[in-house]
């Protein structure tokens, strides 16, 4: 039997919009939270064209390096979810309102530089891509971060957010020249 068109098992893409986004998904913290910043950017393809039907998810520690998770023995912070989800708009743009993360423990007790874990899902991508956002003001911590140091120095800039008027800009290019560094997790 032959079927015309694509099925969910053949592609992702428009199927992401059916039930995955939710109204407060982009708000890791509520609007008006002291110290809140916007992380804004765009998801683009190999030709630099916007991907209007991608989904960006973030997972991060709070400013004290604690996760909003029952397995974190340091406790939870009221009003801090740690998880954000935002579909991209027609221009490939996304936005996440959050607080800057603190350093978190890495292997053998070494601290990792403050960062936000990012997953991107999109049309034609049968698996998510995973990257990290690091922050420019953490230059000393970034210099010794065990994960960031796995990345060739010439490509590390794709993982460093740029300051903006009300927070930071972090663009994700899924392939091609200037491709964002992705991690095999």
UniProtKB/TrEMBL annotation:
Keyword flag Transport: no
Class of the enzyme per the UniProt entry, highest EC level: oxidoreductase
SUPFAM superfamilies with a match to the protein in the record: Aromatic compound dioxygenase (SSF49482)
Keywords per UniProt: Dioxygenase, Oxidoreductase
Any Pfam family: Dioxygenase_C
Gene3D superfamilies membership: Aromatic compound dioxygenase (2.60.130.10)
EC number: 1.13.11.3
Start and end residues of each Intradiol ring-cleavage dioxygenases domain: 35-161
Molecular function GO labels: ferric iron binding; protocatechuate 3,4-dioxygenase activity
Top-rank taxon: Bacteria
Protein family: Belongs to the intradiol ring-cleavage dioxygenase family.
Entry-linked NCBIfam families: protocat_alph
Full protein name: Protocatechuate 3,4-dioxygenase subunit alpha
Lineage, opening ranks: Bacteria, Bacillati, Actinomycetota, Actinomycetes, Pseudonocardiales
Gene: pcaG
